[in-house]
Amino acid sequence: MDRSVSPLGVTANVTQPPLNATVKPFSVFDGCEQYIEAILFDLTLQTINVIVGIPANLLVIAILIYNRKEPSTSDIFLGCLAFMDAYFGTMTPLNFLNLYLWHSKEVWSAIKFSFGVKDTSGPLFLSCICLDRFLAVLFPITFGQLKHIKYRVSLTALVLFLTFAYSATKMVGGFHNFEKVFTYEILAAFGWMVVCNASILRALKKSPSAGRDSMHPMKKKAFKMVLSILCIIIFNYLPPVALFPFEDHYSPDVFRCYVQPAGFAFMNISSTIQPLVHLSRLEKVPFLPEAWVNKICSCISAGSSKPASEQNTSA
Questions:
Q1: Which CATH number is 212's domain given?
Q2: I need a surface site. Which of 85, 185, 191, 208 has the fewest CB within 10 A?
Q3: Dist CA 85 CA 268 (whole Å)
Q4: What was the pLDDT predicted at 160?
């Protein structure tokens, strides 16, 4: 399930043709003409990342810088996650241009590197945010002892090292069963985040009085943040977690052309969903008119009993 070996997450046939054979013209749907729906779905979501995701992530970074005098302990993880998602979005236009115009091996290597960044940075930085909230809610004394920024900088450096090491290896390619690294990573990260967030929600809902409305305001903010992260985890990471480990149960063409790009598509769109969910939790968004903010938040928080303008700031 290594999407680094072909455009758009589809595994390419790398068998060299005979010398006298006619070279087949390049096609985005090479070998997947019967299963183009999943590839189109992935392309559509990657386009949304460019149109919506890049501005949203840049706005998140700007807000974190704007509020740097009163930072949250998770801000460094949120900022790195937003930067990585914005970077991944900027590579999509290059991917399109290289598919149809340039056909450059060097550009394709850069695109493979960006796929590695997306595969690794999202799950790992979300795991860091979950760990930060987990300690804050369930082990407040330990959290207080580890509240210094140096611990989060060290953890961020470790995540960046793992991300770039994985991405560089994916870019080089040629390693046997390297795709299994992603399978183990996503399964471990998904399991940790679900258990972690479920534990946090259970702890936050325990209150002397009945009902969530009786929560302390700080607990309410933490509850909303953790609940939003849990929704992101389930929507964006459950499809690949549920589908990819059962590769042997699909025919090669179905898995290569349908299951694989569909699973990665849900991960890719997290580059748009994550910053929008973060922005929807803010009481006031700098740099934007309040009417715009209310409109965006009402779309993200559809079905919520409260308007977005009444929501508390992020914990």
A1: 1.20.1070.10
A2: 208
A3: 9
A4: 97
Whether residue 129 lies inside any domain: the answer is yes
Number of domains in the chain: 1
**Quick check: is 139 in a domain?**
yes
What distances in angstroms separate CA 305 from CA 78, 168, 301, 308, 313, one per listed residue? 26, 46, 9, 9, 17
pLDDT of residue 153: 95
Torsion angles phi and psi, residue 313, rounded to 5: -70, 160
Structural domain contains residue 25? no
Which helix (H) or strand (E) covers residue 67, if one does? Answer: none
Specify whether the CB–CB gap between 268 and 42 falls below 8 A. Answer: yes
Cα 21 from Cα 36, distance rounded (Å): 26
Asked whether residue 43 is domain-assigned, the answer is yes
Which residues constitute the domain of residue 224? 32-269
Average pLDDT per consecutive 10 residues, the chain (315 residues; last block may be shorter)? 49 47 52 76 90 95 89 91 96 85 84 92 93 89 91 96 94 81 89 91 70 62 79 89 84 83 91 90 71 60 46 41
Predicted model pTM: 0.80
